[in-house]
Design brief:
By secondary structure, this protein is an alpha/beta fold. The chain has two domains: 159 residues, P-loop containing nucleotide triphosphate hydrolases (Rossmann fold); 100 residues, no CATH class. It has 15 helices and five strands. The chain has a five-stranded parallel sheet, sandwiched between helices. The chain is elongated. The structure holds zinc ion.
Length: 328
């Protein structure tokens, strides 16, 4: 059975308690808050032959088939490879599923995640299924970024915002999910994950805290001229480039913010506060703005996986970073 998260309780009661269901739901919200699990839970509930007010029964034929991954009336559409697009051919297969009659005599349920990974052709192919509901079919669309969806897709779904848990609730949940971390480490992970608890767990399993430690130490050594940009680019080559650019982008924003406000509460995570403060005091604002523009532009290229030489790009970043303090 899909995991149930405490911050979804209210929304779940609302969804599970409905007498009538929308033909299509758009479950949206930031990544890493459990939208997929919510959609799977709803899928099981909608397919179950003896659902309770709380959940699917877990024991009927429908529940057992779903668990075994062989339910004939459920369909999951997602990219064939992670981070790739959902192809138009995949959507065509889905469309022919939607027009069939349910084999178990109940509903058919379709789950699509993430909806924004469909290109325009794929999205247009899906529209037909959204426009002409077939029998008792419910479509569950999961989106991390609704701004990337066609308006025609959005308007045909009942939109359902999924909540980001409060910090206290996330930390309580993380205490169980990451029992070996200290509370400070959990706070750090949650901050790095922009408040999304599931993303925080993922960062921990990917070793992001260790990587951050390495990078923060490196930046300090760079500024003390104990290490060169070339050395650091070599040491950091196994760290995801996007992560590095995100951190440097954050740091440049924090420097600017401190220059403008002198607010010591706004210096970000503990590990870099002193460095941020130092750079804010020693660097001209024009230079910080320029490096931030540059970082944002390069980050865009890293995201689009344009053909780059990662080591050279990182070195270029560090050469500029080390020259921040000094002449205003
Ligand atoms: Zn059941």
């Amino acid at each position: 059975m899909a995991e149930a998260y405490p911050w979804q309780d209210e929304l779940w009661q609302q969804l599970a308690g409905r007498k009538q269901h929308a033909h299509a739901y758009l479950l949206h919200g930031p990544a890493g808050i459990g939208k997929r699990a919510l959609a799977e839970r709803l899928m099981a509930h909608l397919l179950c032959q003896r659902p309770t007010a709380q959940d699917a029964c877990g024991e009927c034929k429908s529940c057992l088939l779903l668990k075994a991954g062989s339910h004939p009336d459920n369909y999951i559409l997602e990219p064939e490879e992670a981070d790739k697009a959902i192809k138009v051919d995949q959507v065509r297969d889905l469309v022919s599923f939607v027009v069939q009659t349910a084999q178990m005599g109940g509903r058919k349920v379709v789950l699509i995640e993430p909806v924004e990974s469909m290109n325009v052709n794929a999205a247009n192919a899906l529209l037909k299924s959204l426009e002409e509901p077939s029998g008792d079919t419910v479509l569950l669309l999961v989106s991390h970024q609704t701004s990337r969806l066609l308006p025609t897709i959005k308007s045909r779904c009942q939109q359902q915002a999924c909540p980001l848990p409060s910090e206290a609730m996330s930390l309580a949940w993380l205490a169980t999910a990451l029992p070996d971390c200290t509370q400070d480490e959990r706070i750090e992970l949650l901050t790095l994950a922009a408040g999304s608890p599931l993303a925080a767990v993922k960062l921990q399993t990917q070793g992001v805290r260790e990587q951050r430690l390495l990078v923060v130490e490196g930046v300090k050594q760079l500024l003390k001229q104990q290490k060169s940009p070339t050395q650091l680019a070599e040491e950091w080559k196994s760290i995801p480039q996007l992560l590095l650019f995100d951190w440097f982008c954050d740091w440049s924003s924090l420097i600017l913010r401190y220059q403008l406000t002198q607010d010591e509460q706004g210096l970000g995570l503990m590990d870099m506060r002193k460095v941020i403060q130092y750079l804010a005091q020693k660097s001209g604002q024009g230079k910080v703005l320029a490096i931030q523009d540059w970082i944002l532009a390069q980050r865009q290229k890293v995201m689009s996986k344009a053909n780059l030489n990662p080591a050279l790009l990182l070195e270029a970043l560090l050469v500029q970073w080390v020259s921040l303090p000094g002449q205003k």
